[in-house]
Design brief:
Chain A: It is found in: Endoplasmic reticulum. The structure holds 2 protein chains of 2 kinds. Chain A is an alpha+beta fold. Helices cover 44% and strands 12% of the residues of chain A. In chain A, the strands form 9 sheets. Chain A has a 3-stranded antiparallel sheet. The chains are: A alpha+beta, B alpha/beta.
Chain lengths: 503, 866
């Protein structure tokens, strides 16, 4: 095995303040982890848990008092391990469409006869980890495959702008055509937003905004999000899935706090009914769905509460936190850990504890009640690190959590390799500040060259064009990479109060 | 190893309440037993809970507290309605916990939907216990009617049958109303005395009356609607007068505020409220203002004057009122409103300014005339008289300073039968109100207020409206009277009350001070205009300030200024690289500073802002601090005047030095990075002039160059540390390189030895090959020899046969026995020779196989070394 739970829970230790244990585990991992094993692993899970966990541990290791190498954060033992693990996944991306297989053998690559059907999230949940890897190591291959996979999904969306649940990565045919925001799709949307934030990438954001429009149009009913047929938009399942509860948190990141809060309050009522969120909840019937009554202590609702609490400071969110603590403590605590709730109707327990309980649920719950945690840093404190590539400002807040709750410091992405050219440019400009004869007019550079180059090559894929009139998108003058400010009534939108738009 | 399909049932339920608790805890969900218990008690409260539910756990204590106070009259039963083996879970289906149900005998369940706080629960239980108030006397009637909450009265004559007809229905409708309206905002009373009933013109037993303060009161239309509990309740709810409403959000998703605030501008008044307390002077005062505000038909007061303030006179006055007044108010059971005005007492100029003010209240005692018209404001004569009475007495106003109340009784000039009681109390804090009499109003210039939001200079002698700490004087609203204002203004306010014990968070978010211990706050919220105004918290929340607040809002050129909420948790810190700006420091930091200012609008929750932190930190560290400020403002926590607001985040504004009004916005379609920001600043910060160089210019130049030098020095410092980092990295590399070289040498040596071994092995193999060839040769030779031998033996055999034939022929010829024996012996020796030759061949073959084996092993060894 490759010590999955240990890697997954590593940064939780630091966020909870247990520095010594963090250091011990880092040493254990360096000695004991081997990826050269004949094991079939999920490409998606390995990425979010192992690669993500190692990357965040690597970036936090200085904060944890570990003596780092000179080249840190651009080199280090944990980074090398992350890179090694990621390289094991690269063979899965060798498909005609660029969309990866779901499973890969760590030793032999893709098994002959492997099924080509992968879920949407299994294709579009790489950009955060892989772009970070590329920026830190200087090897662009990771970011490139992740982007290629994202674009392939974008190209294959339906005419009404939705994506299904499973797709054949060889033929690009949709195998499961249910469209929604939950299981099978969830982290695809999440990574479009988080990728856009992390990389200041307009292209990813415009993709998300297009999807967001379609989702609002076809799946949203009374602040619930249902499942619809991806080509026709007809409702196929009127259920709420426990996994969907990440959505309000995501909305709050892009400034849609009102809608986020309204949906959150809906989800919270389900929690109040059962003391947890069932995997499926039938909305019209107001009850669980057969065979989907379990609650494996998933983090999504608590995650959303944490994000929303940042935005609203609404005590209702702390109440959910209190309820979650009580539920977990009263229902699922057993001698050796916290057990999965097999059935929410009678609170029968299963003989397992999921890895995400330690990695995510505990972490988000702790962060909800600890507003002074370094993770919530608003930029008022920061670290300066001297690297061979120059001076770096790090740990200035704005951490982007991957979908397994591993925080990535966005500043670290600007720290390695490409920096030198920018530094000389800055130095030249600084000279201008001190000269009296200022005559030159400077022209500002457009958005990051990456997306520009890509879209120039492949103009048909540029999302702004498929999304409608080109003039329209230009008229819409505000930057895609921004949030709307909150309206006046948001001052009163606490303790369950919601406001309707006049528009 | 763990078994896969092993599950564990949920733990068995245990006691939720302690065994000593007055609450009966049916933790196994015995609903049948709960129903059985209900038969023994008149009033029962059921508390349905789930043991894992945080809200149930929180409410447990509150219910226990109520049970401790009421257990002698009410039965408290808690039922675990979660355990799936329990009866309760099987029969009831709740969507949330806890659920509180009340039963009044057989009537129920009445669900309690209010806040889970002991006082509110207790109040509700008490209402269920006595849904009707018995009005036995006139004073009780007045008491009942004076309440701000709508009241329904029934008149029943109890002398006839054991229970008059319709009484039970009326009683039930009172209980019924509690189902709809957990607050019990509609009070139900029953009159049993004919004379009392006549006061409100009820003559027939069984008639029901809805009291309204402003509109005409109603009598239940028996002929139009059926006389049922539901109908009475519905009728009362539909027709009740809501002069002032309590807002009590229940915590779940709700549109309550949305619906109420969209009706128009709203005055929200936050007061700490205890539902159990009988008297609430502040609330009475607010009610009075509300009544006045809505009292549109001044000439025709619809109702008897029912303002009845116990026996002390006025709620604003404590018991230190003089005896004379006590007597008076006892004699005449109904007193008029006190009218209050704030006056400056001129002879106290020597004392501090704040104590120079007196709130003068006049209680006019009248004969018992319930239909009397109100005199809400003291008229000039009254004030004059009151003042005179004070001055004449030449009292020393020690008590005034120590915040006690001075009262004086005097006769009215024109009515010898009425007394006035004039009381003076110091107005606490900065209540700087000036004379309210009409005399002064004429002397004051009318002040028209320019548009708000700008800090202009003021040439008025009166305190300028923009000055936050100054109270807006009465004189601005001269001529405006609050009575019936709601009908005269086009900016009608809806009035709401909120319990600050439960909902103070709204007040805080609208700008109430977090530090204050007194949780009183009043604000006017206009959702449509997206503004709100705040009654200065330094003023005490009393009727008069509230009145002024309303008046100021209503007049055409409202002197009220949009309140800007700022974040009090931010402290100005010079050490910070990026200056944190708030509403209060915005103007100083941006406009008054002698620097170029780059201001970032952000919000902590916006992902796109937070990921730019490091860029702004770098920028702030880079720019010369003497000429540039990099600042930011959290726009969610800090309001700004409209002209500085933005609708997207992040927004970057640059305010060039000396041209602060010409701020420029960083273009949104460019990516925010260090070079772009620097270029942006460079493009907009340069001085426009290209004037010939003067001394001044030279001086500037030197200053600039000095700045440059220091910048370069910093840069050198940075480079040095970078170089040292590089050196370190270099050293590390060096070490690694030498290590690698050593490794290489070692490898080479290994290679050499391996090559040598290889050579020897090759030699060996050649040698082996040679021997093999040799052996092969030998083998061939041997084979040849063998062949020869075989040939020889064959010829020998032939010879043998020939010999035998010869012998036989000889035998035949000779028949001699001795000769036959000889020939047999020679044949035996020949066959021995033959067998020895065949063993030799076998050994040769074995050797050959062995040779091949060794060659093969050599090959493979060579391969490995290669």
């Amino acid at each position: 095995s490759f010590s999955l739970t240990l890697i997954d829970a590593l940064d939780t230790l630091l966020i909870l303040g247990n520095v010594s244990e963090f250091q011990r585990v880092v040493n254990v991992l360096q000695e004991g982890v081997d990826f050269d094993i004949d094991v079939n692993a999920s490409v998606f899970e390995t990425n979010i848990r192992v690669v993500g966990g190692l990357l965040s541990a690597h970036l936090l290791s200085k904060k944890a008092g570990i003596e780092v190498e000179v080249g840190w954060p651009c080199s280090g033992p944990l980074l090398r391990m992350a890179e090694e693990a990621a390289r094991k996944l690269l063979p899965a991306f060798q498909t005609p469409t660029g969309m990866p297989y779901g499973t890969v053998n760590l030793l032999h690559g893709v098994n002959p006869g492997e099924t080509p059907v992968t879920c949407t999230a299994g294709i579009g949940t790489f950009i955060v980890e892989f772009a970070t890897l590329s920026h830190l190591t200087g090897d662009p291959v990771f970011e490139d495959v992740a982007r290629k996979a994202l674009k392939a999904l974008w190209k294959n969306r339906s005419d009404i702008g939705l994506v299904g649940n499973h797709i054949d990565v060889i033929t690009a045919k949709w195998v499961a055509q249910d469209a929604g925001i939950g299981a099978g799709v969830d982290s695809y949307f999440e990574y479009l937003v988080k990728g856009a934030i992390l990389l200041q990438d307009k292209e990813l954001m415009s993709m998300f905004l297009e999807y967001n429009k379609a989702i609002k149009n076809y799946t949203k009913f009374d602040d619930w999000y249902l499942w619809v047929q991806m080509y026709k938009g007809t409702v196929s399942m009127p259920v709420f899935q426990s996994l969907e509860a990440y959505w309000p948190g995501l909305q709050s990141l892009i400034g849609d706090v009102d809608n986020a809060m309204r949906t959150f309050l809906n989800y919270y009522t389900v929690w109040k009914q059962f003391g947890g969120l069932p995997e499926f909840y039938n909305i019209p019937q107001g009850y669980t769905v057969d065979k989907r009554e379990g609650y494996p202590l998933r983090p999504e609702l608590i995650e959303s509460a944490m994000y929303l609490y940042r935005a609203t400071r609404d005590p209702t969110l702390l109440e959910l936190g209190r309820d979650a603590v009580e539920s977990i403590e009263k229902i699922s605590k057993v001698d050796c850990g916290f057990a999965t709730i097999k059935d929410l109707r009678d609170h029968r327990l299963d003989n397992r504890m999921e890895s995400f309980f330690l990695a995510e649920t505990v972490k988000y719950l702790y962060l909800l009640f600890d507003p002074d945690n370094f993770i919530h840093n608003d930029g008022s404190v920061f670290d300066v690190v001297i690297t061979p590539y120059g001076e770096c400002v790090l740990n200035a807040g704005g951490y982007v959590f991957n979908t397994e709750a591993h925080p990535i410091d966005p500043a670290a992405l600007h720290c390695c390799r490409k920096r030198k050219e920018e530094q000389w440019e800055v130095e030249d400009l600084m000279r201008e500040f001190y000269s009296l004869k200022k005559t030159k007019k400077f022209t500002l550079k457009r958005a990051s060259d990456h997306s520009e180059g890509e879209s120039a090559k492949d103009p048909e894929d540029a999302p702004s064009e498929k999304g409608g009139d080109k003039r329209n998108s230009k008229k819409n003058s505000h930057s895609l990479l921004s949030c709307p400010t909150q309206s006046f009534n948001s001052k009163l939108a606490v303790l369950g109060q919601v406001f309707l738009d006049n528009t | 190893s763990r078994a896969k399909d092993v599950t564990m049932p949920a733990k068995l339920p245990v006691n939720f309440f302690s065994t000593r608790s007055p609450v009966i805890d049916l933790f196994r969900g015995q609903l049948d037993y709960a129903d059985h218990l209900r038969q023994d008690s008149e009033i029962v409260l059921y508390f349905f809970y789930a043991p894992w539910c945080g809200q149930s756990i929180a409410a447990r204590e509150e219910v226990e507290h109520v049970a401790g106070r009421l257990s002698d009259q009410v039965l408290f039963v808690a039922v675990n309605c979660w355990w799936n083996q329990g009866k309760c879970r099987k029969q009831k289906h709740f969507f949330y916990f806890p659920v509180i149900h009340l039963y009044h005998r057989s009537f129920g369940p009445i669900e309690y939907k209010g806040p889970m706080s002991a006082v509110y629960i207790e109040k509700f239980v008490r209402r269920v216990m006595t849904p009707l108030l018995y009005i036995s006397s006139r004073s009780k009637l007045l008491d009942f009617l004076s309440n701000y909450e709508p009241g329904v009265l029934g008149y029943f004559e109890f002398n006839a049958s054991p229970q008059p007809p319709g009484y039970l229905t009326f009683f039930t409708s009172a209980l019924h109303s509690l189902k709809k309206d957990y607050l019990g905002t509609i009070r139900f009373g029953v009159i049993t005395d004919k004379h009392v009933a006549e006061e409100i013109s009820l003559v027939h037993s069984g008639s029901v009356y809805l009291h309204r303060h402003v509109n005409t009161s109603l009598i239940y239309p028996n002929d139009v609607m059926n006389y049922t509990a539901e109908n009475i309740c519905k009728w009362a709810l539909e027709n009740r007068e809501m002069l002032i409403r309590w807002l009590r959000p229940h915590g779940g998703k709700s549109l309550l505020l949305n619906n109420e605030l969209k009706k128009g501008p709203a005055l929200l008044i936050f007061i700490p409220y205890n539902p159990l307390s009988e008297i609430n002077p502040l609330l009475d005062e607010i009610t009075k203002v509300a009544l006045e505000y809505h009292n549109c038909n001044k000439s025709q007061p619809a109702e008897p004057d029912v303002q009845h303030f116990g026996d002390v006179g006025s709620p604003a006055f404590d018991s230190s009122a003089p005896d004379a007044h006590m007597k008076l108010s006892e004699t005449f059971s109904i007193t008029k409103y006190p009218c209050c005005n704030t006056v400056v007492l001129p002879q106290w100029h020597s004392i501090s300014r704040t104590h120079n003010v007196c709130e003068l209240c006049i209680n006019q005692t009248l004969g018992v005339k319930p239909n009397k018209v109100h005199v809400p404001h003291c008229n000039f004569l009254e004030i004059e008289a009151a003042l005179d009475s004070f001055y004449l007495q030449e009292r020393t106003f020690f008590q005034v300073i120590s915040n006690t109340i001075e009262c004086n009784n005097f006769l009215s000039f024109y009515s010898p039968f009425s007394y006035y009681t004039a009381c003076c109390r110091t107005v606490n804090r900065h209540f700087l109100s000036f004379l309210g009499s009409e005399k002064t109003i004429f002397q004051t210039p009318r002040v028209a207020f320019s548009s708000h939001g700008k800090k202009g200079t003021t040439q008025y002698s009166v305190p300028h409206i923009e000055d936050r700490n100054c109270f807006i004087p009465d004189l601005h609203i001269s001529g405006t009277n609050i009575t019936g204002l709601s009908c005269r203004t086009n900016k009608t306010l809806n009035l709401y009350l909120l319990d600050s014990n439960l909902f103070w968070i709204y007040a805080e978010r609208l700008g109430a001070s977090r530090s204050t211990h007194l949780k009183e706050f009043a604000t006017i919220v206009d959702l449509k205009e997206e503004v709100h105004y705040v009654l200065d918290q330094n003023q005490s929340l009393v009727g008069s300030t509230l009145e002024n607040f309303i008046k100021n809002f209503s007049i055409v050129y409202s002197p009220l200024k949009r309140h800007l909420v700022d974040d009090p948790s931010v402290h100005f810190d010079e050490q910070r690289v990026i200056a944190e700006v708030t509403t209060n420091t915005f103007h100083d930091t941006v406009f008054l500073s002698e620097k170029n200012v780059l201001l970032l609008y952000y919000a902590q929750w916006c992902g796109f802002c937070a990921s730019l932190n490091h860029i702004f930190i770098q920028l702030a560290r880079l720019l010369p601090p003497d000429n540039f400020t990099v600042a930011r403002i959290d726009i969610t926590q800090n309001d700004l005047p409209w002209e500085f607001m933005t609708d997207r985040l992040p927004t970057i504004l640059f305010f060039p030095h000396r041209r602060k009004e010409q701020s420029v916005k960083f273009p949104e379609d460019f990516s925010v990075n260090l070079p772009n920001l620097l270029k942006f600043i460079l493009n907009h910060s340069r001085l426009s002039s290209s004037e010939p160089c003067t001394k001044e210019c030279l001086h500037k130049e030197t200053v600039l160059q000095q700045g440059h030098i220091s910048h370069l020095e910093r840069e050198i410092q940075k480079l040095r540390s970078e170089i040292s980092a590089l050196h370190q990295a270099h050293d590390q590399l060096e070490a690694q390189l030498s290590e690698a070289r050593r490794e290489e040498r070692r490898l080479q040596q290994q290679k050499h030895t391996l090559e040598k071994q290889h050579k020897t092995l090759q030699l060996h193999s050649e040698r082996l090959q040679a021997t093999y060839d040799q052996k092969n040769q030998e083998l061939l030779e041997m084979a040849e020899k063998l062949q020869e031998l075989a040939d020889a033996s064959e010829s020998l055999l032939k010879e043998n046969t020939l010999l035998r034939i010869l012998v036989a022929s000889r035998e035949g010829k000779l028949h001699n026995k001795d000769k036959i024996k000889e020939s047999l012996q020679s044949g035996q020796t020949l066959s021995e020779d033959d067998s020895s030759a065949s063993t030799a061949t076998a050994t040769l073959e074995e050797k050959e196989i062995g040779n091949i084996d060794t060659i093969e092993t050599e090959h493979s060894r060579r391969n490995r070394t290669e």
